[in-house]
């Protein structure tokens, strides 16, 4: 009996020892030494070129994190606007390697997401987080590296046109777009009804009173001023509106739209009129179309006409086409400046 108890005691002691050894197998690994970002150099300056979006932009390398025993390590690279202490970090990469390369488009997207303003040099803080195993535990964080990046945006710059036509509310005001970055030749189509002004975005891209705004100089001859301005004004109607915030000029042209071409009832000799729908902010009409070509034009004249890419029609663009004859609901959408589109919906 005594020997039996001795055997049980020995078995329990052995089991306890094995349990401790199992726990040691899953113990928190003891990291030794630091892991740091090796390249690029702190203060590196990168200007991203929107014309070279698939080119490599930068390679980040770092020394391996050492957990004291062979184990799989997952690395996550985080970006943040410089000086924000990674309050809202952006995950820019995840890898088991100790390096990552971004092309121009990838780095640009991550930098803008981190809070950098396009076309303005901004500091970008970078750090790497290391975790172990499939459960991604025992997090360690590298040093922080700061580089300077000039990002870009493919969205055209815009200004808003708040006024009587929409309750003088800048955040919901229709927009005009310039022809490109650095350009000040804003243009778009807007339903106007009385007074209005032109309003620039703030640094974050928001439109609110208190931003730079322009009105008429009081002569109502198409001259803009920032100080002592009067509200611009136009009778109710749908206008092509232009404003140049450097030349300080603006103009409006009343437009009524139609569809013309071999596919339309009037052929190439006369436009078939469309009607403005204030609810959809589109020009619409039910039209019997033949298979053939057509375009959209304003005021039954060729001064303003659109064709070309159906997803972004342009002035004097190539003829559009109908593949199958039939009756269609025609919708012309000019509400997105410089990105004019249309729909043909079979009836």
Explain this structure.
This protein has helices spanning 2-25, 104-113, and strands at residues 37-39, 45-47, 56-62, 73-81, 90-95, 99-103, 121-132, 137-141, 145-150, 158-160, 175-177, 185-196, 198-199, 213-216, 224-225, 232-244, 249-254, 257-260, 272-273, 275-277, 282-289, 292-298, 305-307, 314-315, 320-322, 326-333, 341-346. With 347 residues, it is mainly β. The strands form seven sheets. Strands 2, 4, 5, 7, 8 and 9 form a six-stranded mixed β-sheet that branches. A hairpin with a 7-residue loop joins strand 26 (326-333) and strand 27 (341-346). The longest helix has 24 residues, at 2-25.
How many helical elements? 2
Order of helices and strands: HEEEEEEHEEEEEEEEEEEEEEEEEEEEE
Main β-sheet description = 6 strands, mixed
Name the structural class: mainly beta
Helical proportion, percent range:
under 10%
Backbone shape: elongated
Spans where pLDDT lies below 50 across 5 or more residues: 1-33
Mean of pLDDT: 90
- β-sheet strand percentage: 35-45%
Q: What value does the Rg take, in angstroms?
A: 32 Å
* Cα separation of the termini: 97 Å
Number of strands: 27
Helices and strands, with pairings:
Blueprint: H1 2-25, E1 37-39, E2 45-47, E3 56-62, E4 73-81, E5 90-95, E6 99-103, H2 104-113, E7 121-132, E8 137-141, E9 145-150, E10 158-160, E11 175-177, E12 185-196, E13 198-199, E14 213-216, E15 224-225, E16 232-244, E17 249-254, E18 257-260, E19 272-273, E20 275-277, E21 282-289, E22 292-298, E23 305-307, E24 314-315, E25 320-322, E26 326-333, E27 341-346
Parallel strand pairs: 2-9
Antiparallel strand pairs: 1-3, 3-6, 4-5, 4-7, 7-8, 7-9, 10-11, 12-16, 13-14, 14-15, 16-17, 18-19, 18-22, 20-21, 21-26, 22-23, 22-25, 23-24, 26-27
